[in-house]
Amino acid sequence: VVNFNAGPAALPLAALEQARDELIDFEGTGMSLLEHSHREAPYEKVHREAIALLRRMLSVPETHDILLMQGGARGQFAIVPMNLLHAGKSADYVVTGTWAKQAHEEAVLFGNMAGAKARVVVSTEKDKKFARIPTKDELAFDPSAAYVHITSNNTLFGTQWQSYPETGDVPLVADMTSDLLSRPIDVSKFGLIYAGAQKNVGPSGVTVVIARKDLIAGGRTDIPQIFRYKSFADSESLFNTPPTFAIYVMRNTLRVLEEQGGIEALTRENAAKAKLLYDTIDASPDFWRAPVEKASRSIMNVVWRLPTEELEKKFLGEAKAASLVGLKGHRSVGGVRASIYNAVRLADVEKLVAFMREFEKKNG
Ligand code: PLP
């Protein structure tokens, strides 16, 4: 099958094959990696390699630490304010989708407990559609904000920041759950980046955090240790038992992606995949309709509609029968969504496009 699921999502076959081959006896140790201590060499090597791969592939500067945590991106919705939202301060949130909205709500909750505030700078929730990224003029940030929070790619609505906002001395925090490692980023421009791994970089269970060292050092100390970035930075993310197998499969995935040519090759292929799909949609505006503003289109999650809901249902059913799975739009949005993360190759999108043209011919 070709897997267009939004997450957990497709993983490179070679990464899974390696996990299969090594499952019972990891590197001749007579034990599965699942059975190894996280404090001994066989696992530690995997752990360090995963972090080193992320650092190399994303060109993470020495000013930033890479942390491997748990709790997913939603965990970070709470953990970011717990660390960075000091008493008496306010944080700025740009609300471009459901995830961004929930991140803001979590910061409000923590702020209520901790003597701080979280403000919505702007929301693009017109008619609940979130069909665009805000313009520069709409982004009037508070110059004394604790941080500015954005969602880099809006998985449900298919929008993506094409360039990141300037926030001056205010740290920029980005949820990159659905586009980390899909295009180059200048990490030095960010105070903190976080991503649940389960879309572009690995399986579910591990959360990648890339944070400026001074922000980690200055984080709140009146929160439980397990939620402090500092606990993870000081222990090379071995503060407690990490999700060892998830990190191992992420390591395998990163190895494959690096061998494929790393971020440069991924950027090229991801752009080609998205172009092919959007060109197909745009070629028949009477049949396919992309609701997102062109300038805000995501290269990771492509959403579109058909003339009627009946046709959408038929399309999804026939696609599934043709082994093209995971194309149903999010339940809150409807329509069709193709998630074309790193492990979905150009040839896979070509299959989808061929199927679409055939479907349009029969039903258009
Ligand atoms: N943020 C974004 C942009 C997402 O796409 C998702 C999941 O789909 C989440 C947050 C929630 O992630 P998690 O399930 O890891 O908490």
Automatic annotation (TrEMBL):
InterPro entries: Aminotrans_V_dom (IPR000192), Aminotrans_V_PyrdxlP_BS (IPR020578), Pser_aminoTfrase (IPR022278), PyrdxlP-dep_Trfase (IPR015424), PyrdxlP-dep_Trfase_major (IPR015421), PyrdxlP-dep_Trfase_small (IPR015422). It is found in: Cytoplasm. Homodimer. It holds the Pfam family Aminotran_5. Binds 1 pyridoxal phosphate per subunit. Catalyzes the reversible conversion of 3-phosphohydroxypyruvate to phosphoserine and of 3-hydroxy-2-oxo-4-phosphonooxybutanoate to phosphohydroxythreonine. One of its GO terms (molecular function) is O-phospho-L-serine:2-oxoglutarate aminotransferase activity. Residues 1-352 form the Aminotransferase class V domain. The modification N6-(pyridoxal phosphate)lysine is found at residue 199. GO terms for cellular component: cytoplasm. The gene is serC. Pathway: Amino-acid biosynthesis; L-serine biosynthesis; L-serine from 3-phospho-D-glycerate: step 2/3; Cofactor biosynthesis; pyridoxine 5'-phosphate biosynthesis; pyridoxine 5'-phosphate from D-erythrose 4-phosphate: step 3/5. Keywords: Amino-acid biosynthesis, Aminotransferase, Cytoplasm, Pyridoxal phosphate, Pyridoxine biosynthesis, Serine biosynthesis, Transferase. This is Phosphoserine aminotransferase. Pyridoxal 5'-phosphate binds at residues 73-74, 99, 155, 175, 198, 240-241. It comes from the Bacteria. Its EC number is 2.6.1.52. It catalyses: 4-(phosphooxy)-L-threonine + 2-oxoglutarate = (R)-3-hydroxy-2-oxo-4-phosphooxybutanoate + L-glutamate; O-phospho-L-serine + 2-oxoglutarate = 3-phosphooxypyruvate + L-glutamate. It comes from Sandaracinus amylolyticus. NCBIfam families: PRK05355.1, serC_1.
